[in-house]
Specification:
Elements: H1 3-16, H2 24-40, H3 46-60, H4 63-84, H5 87-90, H6 94-97, H7 101-115
Length: 118
């Protein structure tokens, strides 16, 4: 991880508002890692890289990515249930639905709405 790479993610997080959602400790760790990357050129410590990856995922997360991740999880759950019920034997076209981006997005939106109690 280089300084320029980390700086780019920090700027993106500031633009989309996710930087403010980080905890004080996460922001401090990120700034410290940026300082270290600036001084040494890059970060090679695997533990620090993994911590930074978790923070970067939080920084770049948007509503769309959240919806897609919820939709993929729901699609996997439905796929497993339909396999157990042998639904695909008499309705094989249903399996294609779980790879359709629009349907996965729809599942994500419905999952998000049911989680929030709307």
């Amino acid at each position: 991880m280089s300084y320029q790479w980390l700086l780019g993610f920090q700027r993106k997080g500031m633009r989309n508002g996710n930087w403010a959602r980080l905890t004080y400790l996460e922001r401090a760790l990120y700034k410290g890692a940026m300082w270290l990357a600036k001084i040494r050129g890059r970060i090679v410590n695997m533990e620090l890289v993994m911590q930074m990856a978790r923070i970067i995922i939080k920084i770049i997360r948007t509503a769309r990515t959240t919806i897609y991740s919820l939709g993929r999880a729901r699609a996997a759950e439905l796929n497993k249930r339909f396999e157990e019920a042998e639904l695909f034997r008499w309705a094989p076209w249903v399996r294609e639905w779980f790879t359709d981006r629009e349907y996965v997005f729809y599942l994500g939106v419905t999952e998000l709405n049911t989680q929030r109690g709307w």
